[in-house]
Design a protein that fits this description.
By secondary structure, the protein is mostly helical. The protein has 4 helices and 4 strands; from the N terminus they run βαβαααββ. Helix 1 links the parallel strand 1 and strand 2.
Amino acid sequence: MWHGLPLVRYPQTPEQHGVANRVAARGAGVPLTDPAADGIRCAVETALTDPSYRENAQKLADGFRRSGGAVEAADAIEHAANLVIPCKNTLPPTAGACFLCYVNPYSFFSR
């Protein structure tokens, strides 16, 4: 994505599915549904001939470049680690406090 080129997505592991889903949501790539030669050819041709995939991939690349890189990512992670958001405590008072910390792993992609 850094180079602004559309992806042909064929996720194999759980974390790859997350990236593939985000790329799909942003319209920056096409899924590979048939791993045979004809399926690969079709997916690559679609990614290369439909200009919307390249335009959307370029938008993501531009966002990556504006994001601040590793330093800003580390700062955001440290900030998120310090966030503690109180939730509705439906437990009896003797159970103590209830806290929820939610970090959106895709927040960096939505800028």
